[in-house]
Design a protein that fits this description.
This protein is α+β, with helices and mostly antiparallel strands and 314 residues long. The chain has 8 helices and 14 strands.
Length: 314
């Protein structure tokens, strides 16, 4: 049996999760009646019943296994509901967001690509093609969804057949001495001033090594919080410490020899029914730490507030 499905976000052609529809039959583009609201949920949108927005998307026919794969991606029925939607090709399944929409910004155009294409010009070109390149697997697809702060790159540097899934560009400009201003590609993100320690700089901002440590810690924290708490993780429930051990190589050049990450969890996270599964799973969905591990040894420890070790990977 084949199922007609309406997609409107990261499953669209050229978007990061389109690989799940690689073997589906493309039926056509579709725009709903103006009876919905489309909101931003970070790296992906949510469709909500009610409102005055006509939402743009695409229709595909999938088999039963394909529908179940979409159910898993959308965390149905917990995070998304699946309902039939009237289209000119007949009733189609659509995933409607069930979580809180407080402080979520609507997308007035009803077109997710109006945001994703603006953020990554590469995606705009990919959407115009008939098919995007092969998605390397569901784990990479879900990783893209986990990290709302990333435009994912599923490139594996160890293979010549890696496929580019997105890119972003930052602008750096020297101010004075070794102070360098970083402008991000997100309009709402404040600029960041970087600096070097004496005698070169004046430590008026973090240097590159400290930013790398912060990126690893932030990525791992966000990944674990999402795995356990999904869209609404409990507040102040996690502290992460990242230690960089500096060494000198055979040429006496300073390098980051290894990274040690300690994640201290509040009881509310440990007591979650998701914790046992998530503690062995969350690292695989962290774009930054998984990339850094290819060149820098890393140990990640998960502890409770009393210091008891709950999980360790190296």
């Amino acid at each position: 049996m084949r199922h007609l499905v309406f997609v409107y976000g990261t499953l669209l052609r050229g978007e990061v999760n389109h690989g799940l529809l690689e073997h589906a039959d493309f039926v056509g583009e579709h725009r709903t009646e103006p009876r919905f609201t489309l909101v931003r949920l970070g790296a992906y949108p949510g469709l909500i019943s009610g409102g005055r927005t006509a939402v743009s998307g695409e229709l595909y026919r999938v088999d039963h296994a394909g529908l179940k794969a979409l159910d898993r991606l959308e965390d149905y029925p917990r995070l998304y509901d699946r309902r039939l939607l009237a289209t000119r090709f007949g009733p189609a399944w659509a995933y409607l967001y069930r979580g809180s929409v407080r402080d979520r910004r609507p997308i007035p155009s009803g077109d997710w690509r109006s945001l994703s294409q603006a953020a990554t010009p590469l995606r705009a070109a990919a959407v115009r093609g008939q098919r995007d390149s092969k998605n390397p697997g569901r784990r990479q697809q879900i990783r893209s969804r986990l990290m709302a702060t990333e435009t994912p790159m599923t490139t594996d540097t160890r293979t010549s057949q890696a496929s580019e899934e997105g890119r972003f560009t930052l602008q750096l400009e020297q101010r004075e001495g070794y102070a360098i201003n970083v402008a991000f590609d997100w309009q709402r993100a404040a600029d960041l001033l970087m600096d070097e320690p004496p005698p070169l700089g004046e430590t008026n901002g973090p240097n590159a090594s400290r930013l790398l440590a912060a990126a690893v810690g932030n990525c791992l924290s966000a990944s674990l919080l999402y795995c356990i708490g999904k869209e609404e993780p409990p507040e102040r429930s996690l502290r992460t410490e990242v230690t960089c051990v500096m060494v000198r190589n055979e040429k006496k050049r300073l390098r980051i020899g290894r990274m040690e990450v300690r994640m201290i969890l509040a009881p509310i996270l440990i007591e979650s029914k998701r914790f046992e599964r998530c503690k062995t799973l969350f690292e695989d969905f962290c774009v930054v730490s998984a990339s850094v591990r290819q060149g820098i040894p890393m140990v990640v420890s998960v502890l409770d507030e009393a210091g008891q070790l709950l999980y360790r990977s190296d």
